[in-house]
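Supplementary Data S3. Sequence and structure tokens for construct A.
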Amino acid sequence: MKRIAATYYGQVVAFLVPLKDLEEAEKDGAISKSEEMSLSDFRLHMTECWERLQVDVDCIYVTYHTRRAVAFVSPRLANYLPIPISEVAHKLLAIESGLIKLENLLEEK
């Protein structure tokens, strides 16, 4: 599965990732607040979900028949994701607001 940067008014508000991409973040306890919702609920409340991912929710797990299928992850957790951040760094609201330092995202692990 591809990793997709979700944008809202030109800013990256979340990353759509497969569940396996979050194993390290979960193991490290980086995901302190998460939510689960069905795809239809997510679609109905998409704008609110984007706002929550920017402020207080680290991850929204989208479910299909009560099983987690994929996750939308806050840009705050971008350093845990195996995606090329350099391509979207200029669109990350978290970088513009000082929540994330760009050099931390570009470090190789």
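Construct B, processed identically:
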Amino acid sequence: MELAELLEQMSALTFEVATPKRTFYLTGETTEIVDGWLRVLHSVMRKFSSTPLFAQVKDKEFMKGWLTKVKHGSSKKCWSVLHGQYLCFYKSEDDTVPFSMTHMIDVIVEEMESPDSEYGAVDPVPYRHYTLVMKSREQPSDTYLLIDSREEKDSWLFHLKVVSGSGIDDMGTEFEKSIFQLIAQDCDPESETWNSYVLTHTKDAMTETRTTLPTKELEVEALKLFKSIHLFTTVQTQEAAIDYHVSLAQNAMPDLS
């Protein structure tokens, strides 16, 4: 059975079912018939969620948070989780079965500029939402994701671009940019990218995280952890100062305290 996406009702008697290869628009004669079919299709989706495929992608959670999904002019606030190659939409954080999911491979993800950005304002009036648009050759209409903060928008945009394979452009950390350059060069062993400071050994302390993290707070904690580990591995172990060395290890790994 192919993965299907059960989308919102387009009207009282019409709803849409999307698969990776085609989209079906189904219309019933009465609302009772439509509701009956929706219950059956939701039941099938729940059954699908217990298959090995869903269990396989379930553990690969890259991003999660509340997004407003807009399609066909209707909007719905969803708990959204990026599992592997699938962007899954849930009615609440406690739900284990998504009511909708999108296979991100070959989906083009772009950012829509807010009206304020057109005027080049240095500190524009906060816009209600930041918007990402997902375009697919397999789908006749685009999907819009409304995100509350710039920080969340940047993080979602980066991870969705990586998963979809549409490229990160000038996004991400220097390490991630270097990795994508190598991939684009088919990992050419003669590439100068291998000599990048982020890919070679250095005794200097890191000033930025190697990978993109969801929040600034996590970035700060990651750098603190690096400094603790760096200090532990560079301080010479001497018997007279063994207590100090143990203290350094405990700072790096609080569970040892």
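Helices lie at 31-48, 52-58, 150-164, 174-184, 216-234, 242-252. The chain has six helices and ten strands.
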